[in-house]
Amino acid sequence: MKYLTLKYIFYVMILSLLITSCDAPDPVAPEATFQELTKSLEPTKSIDIPTENPENAIGSDEISYAIYTDSQSKISIMYPENWQQVPRENYVEFRSSRGDVIFEVLYAHFHELDQWANQYFAESNYKEESRETLQSPSGYMSIGSLRDGAKHARAIIGNEKAGLILLEVTTDPEDDFEEHLKQFQIVIDSLNLKNASLFDGSNNDNTEHAKNNSNKTNEEDTSSTLTKTIPENSSDVYTDPKTGLSFSYPANWIQFQHEHDIEFQGPIGAVTIMITDVPMRELEQFAQDFFTESDEYKEESRDALDEPSGYISIGNLRDGAQQARVIIGNKQTNIIILEATTGPEDDFEEHLKQFQNILNSISLPEVDSNESQAQQQDYSPTPIPNYGPSAIKIVNTSEFSTDIMQEWASYSEAKMANRRADILMVLWPVGEFVKEGGFSHPFETMEVVITPDEIDYLMNEIETWLSDQSCILDDPVRYDEEVEMYRDWLTRGADASTQITICPASRLILMGLPPDMRDTNDPRYPINLQDFFIHELYHALQQDLMDESCRRLEERLGREETNTPWLVEGGADYFAKHVVAELTGAFNPINTILRNALNASREEGTNIYQGGIDKTGAAAMQILIELEKLDPASILDGSLFHNCARELEYTNDKPYVLQAKNSWHMIEEQNGKFVFSEGVLK
Questions:
Q1: Domain 226-365 bears CATH identifier 1.10.540.10
Q2: CA 106, CA 645: separation in Å to the nearest integer?
């Protein structure tokens, strides 16, 4: 690497050899437990190795280093011992005074390197400035910045045996990125892949050989005891030490521990169980892949399961064996796979009855319900003062009539179950596109077409309104920050489209109107402006957005688990489409929602959290409505957003929520009408 002198490279090579010799894994013993063999990605305790730094060491006269080894892959790195190691669900974060470094084993094949790099370096929240090819180990390193201004570098490296490894480094805009990047180079050069063999099959071969030998011995010793009749009340209980899952199985069945699963072998056939790391939110897609996308297995039938939630599929293997596949689980255990298999000559129906008994005995940990109860107990709505219905003020310098906008606002407000917000809506025109980004919020930079006097007028209205808000009165620093940010947006041409919750019952809406929304020659004028206006106003009418207790529940789950983003944005889009349809009579709102969602899936992918989340969310909500799990009236009167239902009721342990999240894009056009594909609403 360009930051290391030859002397320091020699030092890192010596230390890497020390890492290899000190941290080589012991051979897997035949009696190793299932928990040990299937242990998920968890940080192991670092091995602290104080090291004298060479004379040209970076950042200090003396740096002591520690070794981090991933317990599953056996991949290790070196890092300064004064960095804080913070375990995450799928990666490890190392924090220092200069910035952060992230280390993650991707469990992806090395041949996917270019695909991973191109996708990861092109993410919307990251702006790449340069990229270089790395040689040993092979990969790429990208340097750029994040949307919030933080300096950032990303490296994806690996080899055929270890697969791909991701490393990231981040510093705040004010910190010394170049200095932190030097330490990052040391971390990369210390990467030790010698003990990893995730994809070469060597470990699997050895384990399989031991497994086969064990099976043969056990079968010979106990074959005389296996009968086709299972005595009543003669059963053992298996409990998975990692998840707490338990079930009963016939006492005369033999248990074998393999590398990735446990097998229970009976006189008619076998049952295997495997605990995966796949979250329940991916149930629908996982089922589709597992039951259909393999030449090894041909599915004949499939049924949904309720307790526990999941699916059972019955079919045949390529060699003629008959098999039933089950995927079940909950938010706590993730997805669990069970398989029941018999040879072509054996009695599959009889074995299936035994398998059904096992399924009926399954007990999953009740963490979800306890957690839900705890959430219910923890949730205490923030008291919100009640404002009168006239507390929507519109300040508008665009060409469009403020009086008509006021009519839209009054019509929308009248639909609400009750009103609890003092709202200021500020609208102004912006010109043609200038460049992407340029602001702390995800706005584009547009040509400034309002005059300095108009800017002063708008800012005076904003400042006067802010001065009347209770939570701002005692916080002059925040007041100054808010005012400075809004003036910057107006002065530099931000195409703002946002609702800002100032206080629990104080909402500021800022809308920079682009030329296409103000084009009177557009046949859809002013429908797009109307939709935009009502969408942002609805956010101001969603009462629990500033509910601190609800927001804590949201933050606890994280973005990829919480359903708040797509419910909040989808609700605003659903409401706006319906109200605009009522005001104009020009279109079918559901047809528009599904058409927009289908287009979004084609342009941005099928992850509900990507791209136009208002479009994806509205379609998912329509699935919930058609499944009769969501009352559309609660969206249209705003009551869905009164008591944190987005975190307390529509949770990922509900199969219909997962179904909506995973199937929102399964839409097709039939004679000009957009509908969900067959099977989506089952």
A1: no
A2: 34
